[in-house]
Amino acid sequence: MRGHKTALRPSHQAATDRRSLVGTPGLAPASPLWKRAPTRDAEGRALSDFLMIIPRIRHRPPAQIQARVERIQAVLKAFGDTVVFAELNLRLATLWVTVRPVPGICLTLPAAIKAQVPEALLVAQQPAQGR
Fold it and tell me: How much is the mean pLDDT over the chain?
């Protein structure tokens, strides 16, 4: 089973440890997210995940990007072991987060991220009409 990662990992960098965002640019393309993001915990229980988009993040100055990354990472750390994996893809302007299945976490955690990064938007499926 793949190891769980708890640090926010910008996909254009390789994190040097579990809690650091500092790294060097990778030279090889990353494997697809579906291969890296865990789907089950160590006991075999299914994990949950959500996707947020952060429009125009890659067009901001590096200091603003870093400030947003630090705010997102602080929110993820505040949720402790509930967050299993997180990846920020600057090229696609997406934030993928995998969490333990805690009731309401897929709304509470994105709301906390949005409070720190107001332009962040949760990508959600709309309920079918007529149900």
Answer: 80
